[in-house]
Design goal:
The protein contains ten helices and 13 strands. It is of the alpha/beta class and 397 residues long.
């Protein structure tokens, strides 16, 4: 693997990951003083803390592999592929003031989200000859592919945030704990946002994961969380890595990255193709709509299942997340056989009702006669096996 970029501040030598650790430490200290801080106060604390530590987010030097990437912005950052049809997002001030002052009702469920409890014995009992996908919540999934376990964007923390006391809190517990996870063959990350890259999860599993597969630049994040560099494989779009009988390919996505206000787009984002003899699985990561879905479908000849983003969309950021209509169109573009919506029903990340993504995609799939899978949290979906699909959220408030 190429040498990972060392994220250091030229005048202090501090690592960007130390800054992130300081943010977490401050959150714990504040939590001990008061458990009643409200969201606006927490946001002010977040931005003030990151301002003081912002210098640590400067990334130098730039590895040649990043600078020569087709996705390079020319300054050791990354950009999306050209898309003239992509409408622009509103400015950050407009977005945050709307979040804080215009939050509607219904974005968080009142009734408990159903969760199917799992344990190691139940996982081991699944056939070693089949391909199983287990929904952990949001975009987090556990895969068992012919007896070997894989994780996609695993987040086991209570919040998708650098703080323990503030930020989007999960609607439901995970169906199993980190301690109950089996040894992991590979851990796949789509990008570095907190609802996809979780420090607690990475640090807990760092010695139990054989290999981490990440887009360019994200490897340094993991090294800062204690993952040995030799266990990290960084890929650019359209690059592949073979792991036994599984071939992983990083594919395009239309999104952005960053864990502070000062490191936006310093790491790449990606969707992923997980291919093995007998199954092709697509995972969209976070993305807006573009022609890349058609390109991916054409290159790989379709997919047995597509785990498609369907949630956190808004008119204020129309090109960064798929609307339900775009989710369905992207699924058609990919030539996939089964639509599996993700990125919903776990965290409050937008201004739509929490049920809206699932209600909308259910109606669209029925209208277009598309095969749809909407598993409960903790439910096991086995490719090629019959199952009764349920709209489990419809009766919940």
């Amino acid at each position: 693997m190429d040498t990972l970029r060392s994220n250091t501040c030229p005048d202090t030598g501090r690592h960007v990951f130390w800054a992130e650790s300081a943010v977490v430490a401050l959150s714990k200290a504040s939590h001990r003083r008061s458990r009643q801080l409200q969201a606006p106060v927490c946001l002010v604390l977040l931005f003030c803390t990151q301002f003081l530590l912002g210098c640590a987010a400067v990334a130098q030097p730039c590895p040649p592999r990043y600078a020569t990437s087709p996705q390079s912005d020319g300054a050791c950052g990354f950009v999306n592929a050209p898309n003239p049809q992509a409408p622009p997002s509103r400015d950050n001030w407009s977005i945050w003031t709307r979040f804080l002052g215009q939050k509607p009702q219904g974005t968080v469920p009142i009734d408990p989200i159903p969760v199917r409890r799992l344990d190691r014995a139940a996982l081991d009992a699944l056939s070693d000859k089949a391909f199983h996908i287990i929904r952990l919540g949001h975009s987090s999934h556990l895969l068992k592919l012919r007896g070997r376990y894989w994780l996609i964007d695993p987040v086991f923390s209570e919040r998708a945030s650098p703080f323990s006391f503030a930020g989007p809190k999960r609607f439901h517990p995970t169906p199993l704990s980190l301690d109950e996870l089996p040894p992991i063959e590979g851990l796949i990350l789509s990008h570095d946002h907190y609802d996809h890259l979780d420090r607690l999860t990475i640090e807990t599993l760092k010695q139990r994961v054989q290999r981490h597969y990440v887009p360019l630049g994200v490897g340094a994040r993991l090294v800062g969380m204690g993952v040995p560099a030799e266990r990290i494989e960084e890929l650019d779009w359209w690059q592949s890595h073979v792991a036994g009988d599984v071939t992983l390919t990083a594919t395009p996505a239309q999104h952005f990255s960053g864990r502070t206000p000062w490191d936006r787009n310093s790491t790449l984002w990606a969707s992923w193709v997980i291919a093995t003899d007998g199954a092709r699985i697509y995972y969209s990561g976070d993305t807006g709509y573009s022609d890349s879905f058609k390109q991916i479908g054409e290159r790989f000849g379709g997919f047995d299942i597509a785990l498609m983003e369907n949630g956190a969309y808004d008119v204020y950021w129309p090109s960064l997340h798929l609307t339900p209509e775009q989710t369905v169109q992207a699924f058609v573009d990919l030539r996939a056989k089964l639509l599996y919506p993700v990125h919903n029903s776990t965290f409050d990340l937008a201004l739509h009702g929490w049920r809206h993504p699932m209600d909308s995609v259910l109606a669209l799939a029925a209208q277009m006669n598309l095969p749809l899978a909407t598993p409960e949290i903790g439910e096991v979906l086995t490719l090629g096996q019959p199952r009764e699909n349920r709209a489990w959220w419809r009766a919940l408030r």
